[in-house]
Amino acid sequence: MKTAIVILNWNGEKMLRTYLAGVEKYKGDAEVFVADNASTDGSLSYLRDNHPGVKLIILDKNYGFAEGYNKALRQIDAEYYVLLNSDICVTDYWLKHMVDFMDAHPEVAACQPKLLSETDHESFEYAGASGGLIDRYGYPFCRGRIFDTVEKDRGQYDKPMEILWATGAALLIRSADYWRENGLDGRFFAHNEEIDLCWRLSIAGRKIYCLPMSHVFHVGGGTLPKGNPMKTFLNFRNNLTMLYKCLPDTELNKVMRMRCILDYVAAFQMLLLGRNYGDFKAVIRGRRAFLKWKSDFAEDRRRIQQGRCVENEPGRLSVSIIWQYYVKGKKTWLSLTGRSQ
Asked: Which pTM was predicted?
């Protein structure tokens, strides 16, 4: 099999009813799989009754996004995997554009389409917009979305671009590259796992691209809504862990010291802005959880750094996005760099 589209589902019957038919319509030669993370709603009966052409992989419990995909993909023999959220509305030729590009560029490990909002087709979608980047202190952002500033899509980011990370909402990746880095880090459960995987691939000299000639529409926020303390906890714990694994030796201590300051500033800012006390506690818990399990990742860090093939990974900026955004008022990729690429 050349291409497998794999949708990881957990109690997502509503989204499957809305968007799966479109995936089947525009799948081209790909096979469609739904990997079910032990759903308790009617997802499985709906799939069996209405989508007999979709192959089911039934997992025995909810393994989360990261390990759920690992367990599902181990059961699929394909050249390309497409990790696709259940709340994605695909378009004609979305997949062909990406597969053709990957066929022509063997140095590229993974790519993503342009993500637009399903609720506002003229705007980028938060989760991936037109390609993922990261600043010197580990804060992810995108062409088309920096923090809470989400731009209208006016074609300003329509050129293919090498990036640091491709969104897990619609990620096409070579199976060989996926497994050379041992897949997503299952310990993360959810959040930052696709950034971590793409960063590891970039360190190893592989390339990640955004291909805006392909576009899809994304609902977003379907699993854990913004402001959920568990989402805050996972984001902070996993982001710090990713930094520990991937930062070069020359930057690690300096960045981690600054992140300690920035994280506590963020926690107290949440209180001052009136967000619930749960988010404040989630930041503190996230930092403590990272420190508690940090030693578990020492061997990962050693392996990643020993395999480093590049000194400066594309898509990792040397500036602080917080300083640029809040102090200098640069709230778009164009204003930050003066260019679309």
From this structure: 0.94
